[in-house]
Specification:
Radius of gyration: 18 Å
Strand content: over 45%
Shape: globular
CATH class: Mainly Beta
Distance between the termini: 44 Å
Organism: Anthostomella pinea
Number of domains: 1
Structural class: mainly beta
Order of helices and strands: HEEEEEEEEEEEEEEE
Protein name: Uu.00g114720.m01.CDS01
Keywords: Signal
Helix content: under 10%
Length: 201
């Protein structure tokens, strides 16, 4: 019982000492890792009612277009910078949170923004602005006695640009491939980088 009470108190202290931060507004640049012709920006494209996808547009992001403006919300505690969630509001009062919509028969998870559900935590390198989906555990090296040298925490940057369904529409959009190669043959590996718009933080 005493251990339980101490655990609860420790959790409360962690919450109290966490510093909540938002980076943005920012645009999300999409660049190909193997295909240099992929160089553009993400926009919040209509997917269905109250749902947006993270679609690709080649070339520069339009000035002052809310469809291209996002925020990265994270906490910073005594243990360091914590993973956060990408959000989009498009002028609405309730921000939509980005989550990866997994399909049980595919390793490709579509990035979607929704207002009625929680988001997927990702991390952003504070120096380069690149996003990654870690650190996470790679279970490829797991054995009966332990995780092994390959089963350690590592940063994963498995973002891909794919032609796929974003809700009710078929688009070129950002997805996460859980374990490459992507089952979807149109997917190309990309970097997703946040660039703060002038006047942002």
């Amino acid at each position: 019982m005493r251990k339980c009470i101490l655990a609860v108190l420790a959790a409360i202290v962690t919450i109290v000492t966490a510093d909540f931060n938002a980076t943005g507004p920012l645009v999300l640049r999409i660049t190909g890792k193997t295909d240099s012709s992929i160089d553009g920006y993400a926009n919040a494209c209509h997917a269905s009612a109250a749902t947006k996808g993270l679609c690709y547009t080649a070339g520069p992001a339009p000035d002052n277009s809310t469809d291209y403006q996002f925020y990265y919300n994270y906490t910073f505690s005594e243990t360091g910078r914590q993973p956060g969630i990408l959000t989009y509001n498009g002028g609405e009062t309730t921000p939509a949170l980005m989550r990866f919509d997994f399909d049980l028969v595919s390793n490709v998870a579509t990035a979607l923004f929704l207002t009625d559900t929680g988001g997927s935590y990702i991390s952003m390198d504070p120096d380069s602005g690149k996003f990654y989906t870690g650190p996470t555990t790679d279970d490829l090296g797991f054995t009966e006695t332990g995780p092994g040298p390959d089963g350690q925490l590592k940063n994963v940057t498995n973002f891909h640009l794919c032609n796929l369904w974003t809700g009710d529409y078929y688009n070129g959009a950002i997805a996460l491939v859980s374990v490459p190669p992507a089952q979807n043959p149109t997917c190309q590996p990309v970097d997703l980088t946040g660039e703060v718009i002038s006047g942002g933080s």
